[in-house]
Sequence to fold (368 residues):
Amino acid sequence: MKLERLKLYNFKNYAEAEMNFEGSIHCFYGKNASGKTNILDAIHYLGFTKSYFTGGDKPTIRFGEENFSITGRFTTPTGVTENIKVSLKSPGQKKVSRNDKDYQRFSDHIGQFPVVMISPSDSDLINNGSEVRRKYFDSVISQFDATYLENLIRYNKALSHRNRLLKIMKDKRMQNRAQLEVWDQQLMEYAVAIFEKRVEYNKLFSKHHAEMHSRLTDETEIASVEYDSSLMENDMKSLLDESFQSDLQAGFTTKGVHRDDYFFYINEHRARRYASQGQQKSYLLALKMAQYMITNEKTGHKPILLFDDVFDKLDPFRVQMMIKMLCQDPFGQVFITDTHKLRIEDIIGAVSPIQLFKVENGTVKADE
Ligand SMILES: Nc1ncnc2c1ncn2[C@@H]1O[C@H](COP(=O)(O)OP(=O)(O)O)[C@@H](O)[C@H]1O
Ligand SMILES: [Mg+2]
Fold:
């Protein structure tokens, strides 16, 4: 799957822009706040129907405007053209279409045009709470396992019903275990399905991640991703039974797969506490490359890779090693942003043909 043309209309700081892509590696250069990251985010929208950076669609409408659209023309490996359009008509009326046909459910689109974003904000995965990591792994899995996504949505619905009842019981200082029964049943059913898939995919993820990490660090370090869930020792029923009193006190469900976490280790030490900035960066890069490999394996599509300012702090040798790897199978199209044109030309251009775009104040222009 290759993106051949991208059109933006009232998207963030772009009034109107159009780009045509040739070759496989495309680089955007320009000053800070000129609009480089916004282009990558637009491509992310085409794959995931939403922004990588902002929650909700409203912040992406150009200031003072009422709607935006992003249109992408893709070609498949067999030469078929696919037009994807994401548009928003205020207020909150989002449409996603494929070849002019609107999707009824956006989740049907997820995974058809996969993308992998690599950004400096990925450090949140190491430094923030468990929710960020759960959401990340859930979104990776959802790109290729629709049943998983369905189960997750159903689990979360049952959970919010149960939490609402617990909150009422807490406020009214009453308890009625039987009232929760219907939601307990659902949580039990979906928790098992979610747990089993997380275990399965974590094994696959760990395998790819360890390989990538050792490649990126010249085999000097061993890295692992470990999945942690209270369902490893208990079944959901006993967890709900045992925590009923503490759930009542809290006013929400304290145990279950919604509290799972993933632990990141480098040489058996927790990355958050012991790894240097450089080590964390390699770890996260390997994580995203593992995401790439799994998505490729499971969907049969080559995801589009988006590198946002990532080569900024890697040494030139490592950047060239990365680019050489990206020029080989199973990698496909790559988009890169950087503040320095010369750095792109000298380092990336030395090992691969590249297409350069100058970004300036909400305009994009291909270099002559
Ligand atoms: N909804 C919006 N409307 C207009 N401008 C926006 C909107 N959202 C973000 N911007 C602007 O986009 C610019 C940042 O673009 P970005 O792509 O992050 O720059 P960079 O080239 O540094 O990656 C900022 O100047 C910001 O104010
Ligand atoms: Mg940027």
